[in-house]
Specification:
The chain is mainly alpha-helical. The chain is 80% helix and 0% strand.
Length: 162
């Protein structure tokens, strides 16, 4: 139940990340048109691009883990037997979980601090929205790591019954 709900949330986050990419494309196309056709350069698209890239990375991270699309070293992982592979997965996802807990904790501190200091970009856009996406995306990445650990534990118990 937990894994299915989380997978649906991650699917929606991936759609949201895709929409952010579309926003990125349109803002950059608009900036190029304004600069080269109307000779009126805009400065805010650079900030929107930076914010969009943060959004896509952290909103799409949990979905990427869900679909097993993160980088891994298959030459090492292929050396393990099918019986040992779930154990290795459990260890790897436990390490991912520990890293993500640290990432949520520190990024939340930074976002919270940024909320009260009212930081602005060069073009006077508030940067808090991009800062808050980091702990939100990291939180869902942490939950996805827990989901992967649960699946690996089920696979361990399944391979022991064979």
């Amino acid at each position: 139940m937990f894994t299915r709900i989380l997978d649906k949330i991650c699917d929606w986050m991936a759609i949201l990340a895709g929409l952010v990419i579309i926003l990125l494309v349109f803002s950059n196309v608009f900036a190029v048109i304004m600069r080269y056709i109307f000779n009126s350069p805009l400065h805010w698209p650079l900030d929107v691009s930076e914010f969009s890239l943060v959004g896509t990375v952290f909103l799409g991270g949990a979905y990427t883990l869900q679909k097993d699309r993160h980088v891994n070293i298959t030459i090492v992982l292929d050396r393990f037997s099918q019986r040992k592979r779930p154990i290795i997965d459990c260890i790897i996802y436990s390490l991912v979980f520990i890293f993500c807990i640290f990432l949520v904790w520190k990024s939340w501190e930074l976002a919270w601090m940024n909320l009260y200091t009212r930081s602005w970009s060069i073009t006077r856009l508030p940067v808090f929205p991009s800062y808050i996406l980091v702990p939100i995306g990291s939180f869902f990445l942490t939950l996805q790591a827990v989901s992967k650990i649960i699946k690996a534990i089920k696979d361990i118990s399944y391979t022991r019954t064979l």
